[in-house]
Amino acid sequence: MAFSVIYSPEAFDHLASLQKSDQVAVVDNVEQQLTHEPTLATRRRKLLRPNPLAPWQLRIGDIRVFYDVQETPDSVVQIKAIGKKIHNEVWIGGERIQL
């Protein structure tokens, strides 16, 4: 079953703040990684501890895509936020986020 991907308005803003090459990498990897079995943990996808941002994370180099999965009634992956990991900190929209 294929999942459709929806970006939140905030995620669009986060994506727009990235360099063009990073934007292309994010869109390509989201399409490749999250349209089939987005809840299967892999080396790039991981279930996070409970946090206010999102339950799942996709790692693309130093970029982190935070998403939620809704399996019923429609199969939808909602991209909540996109940030950059710098050392041990995740920065989203110019703010340091604690996960």
| Structural Rg | 13 Å
Structural class, from secondary structure content? alpha+beta
Mean pLDDT: 93
Listing every helix as H and every strand as E from the N terminus to the C terminus, the arrangement reads: EHHEEEEEE
**Low-confidence blocks of residues:** none
DSSP summary, beta strand count: 7
Largest sheet: 7 strands, mixed
What's the helix count?
Answer: 2
Strand content: 35-45%
Shape, per Cα inertia axes: globular
Cα distance spanning the termini: 31 Å
Helix content: 10-25%
Describe the structure.
This protein is an alpha+beta fold and 99 residues long. It has helices at residues 9-16, 20-34, and strands spanning 4-7, 45-47, 56-60, 63-70, 76-86, 89-92, 95-97. A hairpin with a 2-residue loop joins strand 5 and strand 6. Strands 1, 2, 3, 4, 5, 6 and 7 form a seven-stranded mixed beta sheet that branches. The chain has two helices and seven strands. Helices cover 23% and strands 38% of the residues.
Keywords:
99 residues, alpha+beta, 2 helices
What is the structure about, briefly put?
The chain has 99 residues and is of the alpha+beta class.
Task: List the SSEs and their pairings.
Blueprint: E1 4-7, H1 9-16, H2 20-34, E2 45-47, E3 56-60, E4 63-70, E5 76-86, E6 89-92, E7 95-97
Parallel strand pairs: 1-5
Antiparallel strand pairs: 2-3, 3-4, 4-5, 5-6, 6-7
